[in-house]
Structures are given as C-alpha cells and as structure tokens.
Amino acid sequence: MRIPTKAQALALLEEGGRKNPGPWVRHCRYAGKAAQAIAAKTKTLDPEAACILGLLHDIGRRFGVTGSRHIYDGWAFAKEHGWDDLARVCLTHSFPLQDIEACSGSWDVGGVDGSKKYQKTAALLKEVTYDDYDRLLQLCDALALPEGFSLLEQRWVDVVLRYGVNPLLPKKWAATYEIKHRFEALCGVEDLYCLLPGIVQRTFPWISA
User: Residue 140 in contact with residue 148, Cβ under 8 Å?
Assistant: First the structure.
C-alpha cells in the first residue's frame, strides 16, 4: 500500500499535535488501535496498514483549527507525499454515506480558493468505489473518542453537540451500522465491541465497580 511506515505515522501525528494541539490527536490514536484490532480478526486486511490509516485519517488537522476542510487538507498532504492510499482514507473517512452533504460541520472554505477545494472534494468523493479499508476507517472514526473507545451512539452525540444536526444523519448512521455488521461477519464475532479493550468498563463503570 502507498502509505507511510508506522514510525513515520507516529512522528507525523506527534508533529501535527505540536502544530495544532487538541483532542484530535488522541482520537486518532484510538482510531488506529481500533482499526488494528478489527483488521487483525479478518483474513484480508493488514492490521499494521489499518493502524497507520487510523493514526493519520485526520492528519489534515495539522494545518489548524478547521471544520470539514481537514478532509481536503489531509488528502492534499498525503498526495503530496505520494501516499495515495492514505489520501483516499483522508477523503473517505467522514462519508459512510457517500454524499458530500453528509459531512458534519461547516466546510469553512470561503472565497474562490475555498470553493475550488469543496468542488474538488466533491468530485473526488464521487469517483471513489469504497473498499474495506475505507469502510473500516469510517467505522473506527465512529468508535473513538479522545478518552478511549466508545459506542457508536456516544461518538455520534459528541459530534452533534459540537457541530449540530445534519439532515442526512439518519442515513449516515444507518450506513455506519451496516458497516459494523459487515465487519462483525468478517471477524466472526457477535459484536465488534468485544474487540475493543476497556470499552465496557469505560461506558458502564458501575459494572466493574
């Protein structure tokens, strides 16, 4: 795959955190761990590659505090380095529903240059035929809070509180559930949450109290 090494990915994430400190870095670390754990249970996906993609799916945030513009910025950054498979995931991770309007938050791409970036993102997204790495990272993006692994619904509430409600959210959530069921079948487990260490204790602390 055309991606950086894991050592490079960790260094890039650390550098991104220095450039733009914030909870996004911890979110990416958990997304990478979730992707690795799930990929390891399949027969077709590379766990280390999945981890790298998870670590860097939000690398566009290295360029500052932005909303959905980080999607384009991450794609452009990865393409510049020749990491085409990473660029693809930077583009697709926010779109379990393959519709440019389904992304949460504003596009913050004002002006002529911003409009071009939006149109470019829309065109690129429309051309993609999703594979299981795209789907895995869409899922893991929704399984990771900065504090740790989360239920899908916890992550969705977190996003809505920060960005508001998108009319396409029900369809986007339904698409994510379909991805979850797909990976449960690929992994041979009844529920993917069993692959994420500590999720039960963090979500229901009274159970282990």
Answer: no
